[in-house]
Amino acid sequence: MRKELAQARSQLPRHIAVLCDGNRRWARDAGFDDVSYGYRKGAAKIAEMLRWCQAAGIELTTVYLLSTENLQRDPDELSALIEIITDVVEEICAPANRWSVRTVGDLELLGEEPARRLRRQPTLMLLDEPFSALDTGLRAATRKAVTKVLTDAGVTTLLVTHDQGEALSVADQVAVMRAGRFTCVGTPHQVYRRPADRFTAEFLGDCVFLACTVQSGTAETALGRIGLTAPAADGPGTLMLRPEQLVATESTDAASGPEPGIGTVLGTEFLGHDVLLTIDIGGDTAPITVRQHSIDPPDVHTKVDISVLGGGLVLR
């Protein structure tokens, strides 16, 4: 019969339900004083049955293991039955079976320890671009709610995303992958402020790169002398800053020639809460981008003083 059914997959249902009943009656009819023997014999067939269903192409199987009526039975018999049920669930949840198992029902009726054993929680959850199809506002709210649920449940989660802001705001650890290899792994703050290379730096957000000369723990640049966020050997290099580290204010300096820390606004891009300023700092240095609050930003062609918040990272 099994072979015939397996050959007729198109005629099989996608979902079947199995009611575990009659095991106690079978044990009594067979002459066993301990009726739990019947429960054990029936339970031993459940994993075998599920493997057959899987091989036959049945996608979903519901197994009814216990009814509320069973809870009225003799305490010793009920205790044995609950122990058998928890063993069965743990068996079919074994990683080797690779089955997705969900327990349904009021588990608290079984007692604290059985409920704990039966309450299935994933040890690792994979979320692959889970919020990408949502509108911006809904996306942020959903992401926050999902993160809270997973954090409260203590579930380790692997989030795959191409949204850098999403990765930095959600993760405890961020891993940047390029061509199948991790280029940088660390906390969001570490990978953003101290990326391993230029690719990682640019991948995680806008950057300002300045030619520099390192000497005694500081970098001499077109913006003046800037401290370092990580040790670097003396000599030439490239200093990386983030646009939000730069602050541009209207200059009162009347000098006409190029000076460290002084530039001219070439363009502005209003983003609502922020504004992006494109600034020419003179010399051979390409125009730089400054991100700051959008309240009363300097106008185009305005001469500005540029100060740096924090230090920079030397990349070589």
UniProtKB/TrEMBL annotation:
Pfam families: Prenyltransf. One of its GO terms (molecular function) is ABC-type maltose transporter activity. InterPro entries: ABC_transporter-like_ATP-bd, ABC_transpr_MalK/UgpC-like, Mo/tungstate-bd_C_term_dom, P-loop_NTPase, UPP_synth-like, UPP_synth-like_sf. One of its GO terms (cellular component) is ATP-binding cassette (ABC) transporter complex, substrate-binding subunit-containing. Keywords: Transferase. Residues 17-204 form the ABC transporter domain. It comes from the Bacteria. This is ABC transporter domain-containing protein.
